[in-house]
Design brief:
The protein is mainly α. The chain contains 7 helices and no strands. The longest helix has 35 residues.
């Protein structure tokens, strides 16, 4: 992945959210955007925050962290490869902070996916199950003691969520596109 294809860091997004007057966690915002786009919603355009039902007090700067978050996220989904990443705190952040951020990301994803309102027949059985699993993670209260096994478990959950988001995007966006081409 090239440098321009990397998500802005959590701190930059948090600062931009504060500047825009938005009281949402960076991971939850990214999850919302990813859920919306995965469900078939359009994340392009200057009104993307409003599409996520977020009303910024101040318009985010063009070329700033929020614009970068949106642009890179859309590019990662469009690339249809496995470079898609979740916006979570850095690996050196405390384990509990990263686990909480993953739960927030999943909650945001579910909200964004619901806003996009994909047709229920758009989901394969596998994608429907993945969406249910994201829902279980979103409803979880993850607890870790910081052991190496906990680090490994969190990494596996993050990887599962990442692949689940790609699967849902594939069913709702790519699958819908293929169905339109057949008709």
């Amino acid at each position: 992945m090239s440098h321009s294809d990397e998500l802005p860091d959590n701190a930059a997004v948090a600062g931009a959210l504060h500047d825009a007057g938005l009281a949402i966690d960076p991971s939850e915002l990214h999850g919302s955007l990813c859920g919306y786009v995965s469900g078939g919603g359009r994340g392009d355009g200057d009104d993307w925050l409003q599409r996520l039902e977020l009303d910024a007090e101040r318009v985010p700067a063009s070329g700033g962290a929020l614009d970068g978050l949106r642009t890179v996220t859309l590019a990662q989904f469009a690339a249809q490869d496995f470079d898609f990443q979740l916006l979570l705190p850095a690996d050196d952040a405390p384990l509990a902070e990263r686990a909480d951020a993953l739960v927030d990301w999943c909650r945001g994803f579910l909200g964004g996916f619901g806003l996009a309102s994909p047709a229920s027949d758009a989901l394969s059985d596998e994608a429907a199950e993945a969406l249910e699993d994201i829902g279980r993670i979103a409803a979880s209260d993850l607890a870790y003691d910081g052991s190496e096994a906990d680090e490994s478990a969190l990494a596996e959950i993050v990887e599962f969520v990442r692949v689940a988001a790609l699967l849902l995007h594939g069913d709702c966006v790519d699958g819908a596109h293929r169905r339109r081409q057949l008709h």
